[in-house]
Specification:
By secondary structure, the protein is mostly helical. It contains ten helices and two strands, in the order αααααβααααβα. The chain folds into two domains: 135 residues; 104 residues. Strands 1-2 form a two-stranded antiparallel ribbon. Helix 4 runs antiparallel to helix 5, helix 6 runs antiparallel to helix 9 and helix 7 packs antiparallel against helix 8.
């Protein structure tokens, strides 16, 4: 499996891990107090998941070292929460004090266990990426990923403002700029200056549109502005390439080439030999 495929799979699994984490947060309303306290640690993991997403978009192998540390810490926190929750649930069962909350507690702990396994698997995949000698990172390809994440928030902002009858022209530039950025970033020849101008236009419109009083639209606009700002940073980061040197060709020992002798020469040599022997 190539390094690019591993990187894309890690980004996709982050969405799955976050979905599991949200399920755990929702299920905490129905669990016992001991499990509720144990799963408080999992809220810190959101910081590590966000760090992993950001590092996966930076075209540098150093960023993957930072991501490896973050996912390892997330794995340790998930394992700690699982251990504390399991011990508390077993003690509660021994005392017959949490019969009503046993099923939700076990369901939440199962989700935490799956989350822990996914965190561990993410750490293993990052280790493989770091060990892979063939590694190519492109800043423009990271722009495609970033603005593919940002475009749904731009659509959401316009829908919310339109439904609330608070739409303004300042909310529409990202709908035009972001698809152009995604298309241009995939071109063979990338115009960094034009990409920077489009990102600046998108960020400026987001800042002006933040004057709205609708909370959901403000949140979506802030996410767009943050992604655009990070995209500007990624755009001017140098790409890094690690290419495995081709294997050296095996040296084959050449056998000495014997001179070819014709039949007439062989007969002549035999005659000379017989004359020498007679002599």
């Amino acid at each position: 499996m190539s390094s690019v495929t591993l990187q894309n799979n890690i980004r996709l699994r982050v969405i799955l891990v976050i979905s599991l984490s949200l399920f755990v947060q929702f299920g905490r309303k129905f669990v016992s107090d001991s499990v509720h306290k144990a799963t408080d640690l999992l809220e810190i993991n959101y910081i590590f998941y966000g760090l992993l997403l950001l590092c996966s978009c930076i075209p540098s192998k150093i960023a993957w070292y930072v991501a490896a540390i973050g996912t390892l810490l997330a794995t340790l926190l998930s394992a700690t929460a699982l251990a504390l929750g399991g011990i508390a649930t077993s003690r509660c069962l021994d005392n017959s004090g949490c019969i009503q909350t046993i099923f939700p507690s076990l369901l939440v702990l199962a989700a935490v266990a799956l989350q822990c396994l996914l965190d561990l698997y993410q750490t293993w995949n990052i280790y493989i990426i770091l060990r892979t000698p063939y590694f190519i990172a492109s800043s423009t390809q990271r722009l495609v990923i970033l603005f593919s994440w940002a475009l749904p928030f731009a659509i959401l902002t316009n829908i919310v403002l339109f439904v609330e009858s608070a739409w303004s022209v300042w909310a529409s530039p990202p709908l035009v700029a972001m698809p152009i950025i995604i298309i241009m970033a995939q071109a063979a020849v990338v115009d960094s200056l034009l990409l920077g101008v489009l990102i600046a236009i998108s960020m400026t419109s987001n800042m002006v549109a933040l004057l709205t009083q609708i909370e959901l639209a403000r949140t979506a606009l802030m996410i767009q502005a943050a992604i655009s700002a990070f995209g500007t940073l990624v755009l001017f980061l140098p790409s890094e390439k690690y290419i495995q040197p081709p294997p050296a060709a095996p040296t084959v020992e050449q056998s000495p080439i014997l001179p070819t002798v014709s039949t007439s020469e062989v007969q002549e040599l035999r005659q000379r030999k017989s004359k020498i022997l007679k002599f």
